[in-house]
What does this fold into?
Amino acid sequence: MHLGRRPSRLPQRLEGMHGISPSALEPRAAWRTTVDRAIAAKVDAVLLAGDVVDSKNHFMEAYGALLEGVQRLKRHDIDVICVAGNHDVEALPRLAQELDNVHLLGPGGTWSSFVVRREGTALVRVIGWSFPRKHVESNPLDAMPAAMTAGRYEDDAPDDLCTVGLLHCDLDAGAGSRYAPVTRASLSNRALEISAWFLGHVHVPSIQTSGRPVGYLGSLVGLDAGECGPHGPWLAKLGAGTWELEQLPLSPIRWEARDVNVERCADAESIGSAMGQALQSLGEELESQMDGTRVVGVRLRLVGTCPAPSELIRLAIQQAEELELFPAEVYYFVDKVTDESRLPIDLQSLAQQKDPAGLMARRLLDLEEGEEACARLVTVARGRLESVAAHGNFSHLDRACSSDEEVRQILMRVARRALDELLAQKTSSPSLVRDEEVLA
It folds into this structure.
């Protein structure tokens, strides 16, 4: 949940012009709504997969909100079962000591279980492991007791009771991870007979809802524009040994990204119209998916071969960043527009020329169509990106370095703009110059 953190990149006009307080979009607000839903649904337990509290900087504020919600659940006899993540190695043990309806699994890097009951009848067993410190380089499953690995438990419920795993970990991240690296294969160990693995750490939900559920629940609120799609708690129902999962999209803010085709747009008006239509279509698409969402931030990407001059594209982008939409009382705003459109250029012909523009065209063709040549360019670029990202002021580049495909996309975007500028210099036509990056 990251209680204490606030969503980033909210427009300043949000509160002044539209009366939406940023505090109403925070994880604290979503946590209160989640507690309301849990009580209304008369659930048997609430499971928390770690990183409930964000950091020491907002500890008292976040802990107070957490405590208030758990106390309300206690009044309705609802157990809270949790594991500590890398952000809350102190907060959750403290909470478990204060309230008897809070059950911390695996304190201090151990493994333990808790049996959920209704009127004395055992319903389901939850097993889990908690971070003993902020960084853990080993797979926590390797530390599981032999008896538990064999499906034998020390609680007073039958060993064959339906059992789920609750774990905060870095799934399939490799041995270099410092956040409890776990392989999907180790979670599939059939000897454990775990009917589902509910995971925390990665903010974008990825849990599979059919068959045996395994994956990330995602964060309660999308905290930045990179966390697109629905966010909120999951309602898990057990029947006849199988799980039925339903995500409740209770996050008060949602982030989305859409491509806008500007293939036939020759002026700022038509480009702006295409972006407005994309926003309108998104509002219609999401209308039935809103459950507590008040604000939607959208990132648009211009794609296609666009004949409009650069200054008109820039003008359309400036105007788009003021676009607003209010379908079904939900406020939509454009967070950012990325121009990845291209001038109408024949790359194959241009690549035959023996000048800088021809060289750049050949590099673009390598990136778009090549294999070995593309791999070489990506390898060199990755090294340079990682070198820049090592400096604190450019830490946001870490995400961009995560895959070869993302590095390739960065190179293609920069190379296209550099080619536009080279061609503009050749023709001495300022209207063809594209701003921002130039490939070094």
Remarks:
- The first strand starts at residue 45 and ends at 48.
- The chain has 13 helices and 16 strands.
- Residues 404-427 form the longest helix (24 residues).
